[in-house]
Design brief:
The protein is an alpha/beta fold and 174 residues long. The protein has one domain: 2-Layer Sandwich (Endonuclease, Chain A). The protein is 42% helix and 24% strand. Pfam families: DUF6879.
Length: 174
């Protein structure tokens, strides 16, 4: 493994410089994201106000209006964890802004990678690394052709098997 790049300007730059597509595979049951702590607490208390997502949604809408594509597959277990319910609830906002988030049951994802990654323009991988408390430590940029081709394959396999957010929510969001 190469050195991790800490979250900061380099991370943001990946989203500002990709040309066509950004794909994310999410395989964890929970994420400890500082900006989500308070919204998660409110969600568990019955408040599903999406205001906390506004900056991301503005970026998504701008990019998708410019022709860029954002896709994401979330691998989840049943019953859904609190975090997965939280993500499923708010993914409607992401989809409405132009990001296509889909869901794949963990039982149907056995061959997929066991790590999260973003894939930009089918040529640059940002493999994400997490700590013991589900906090993002940083990412590893990978441009080695064999690894990139393999992760493109897994992107396509995950996308093919995944359900749309609305189809999944109609079956599993109570």
């Amino acid at each position: 493994m190469t050195d991790l790049i800490l979250i900061g300007p380099e991370w943001r730059n990946l989203f500002e410089t990709f040309e066509h597509t950004a794909f994310r595979l999410e395989v964890r049951e929970a994420y400890n994201v500082p900006s989500e702590r308070e919204p998660m607490r409110r969600f568990l208390a019955g408040d599903a106000n999406p205001d906390w997502l506004s900056d991301w949604l503005i970026d998504i809408r701008k990019d998708t209006d410019d022709g860029k594509v954002y896709r994401r597959v979330r691998v989840v277990s049943l019953p859904l964890s609190d975090y997965s319910r939280f993500g499923l609830t708010f993914s409607k906002c992401n989809n409405d802004a132009g990001e296509d988030i889909r869901y794949l049951l963990r039982d149907n994802a056995n061959e997929l990678p066991t790590f999260d990654y973003w894939l930009f323009d089918s040529r640059t991988v940002a493999k994400m690394h997490f700590g013991d408390r589900d906090n993002l430590l940083g990412f590893e940029l990978i441009e080695e052709p064999a690894v990139v081709v393999e992760l493109n394959y897994w992107r396509d396999a995950a996308w093919h098997r995944a359900m749309t957010r609305d189809e999944f929510a109609s079956q599993h969001l109570k």
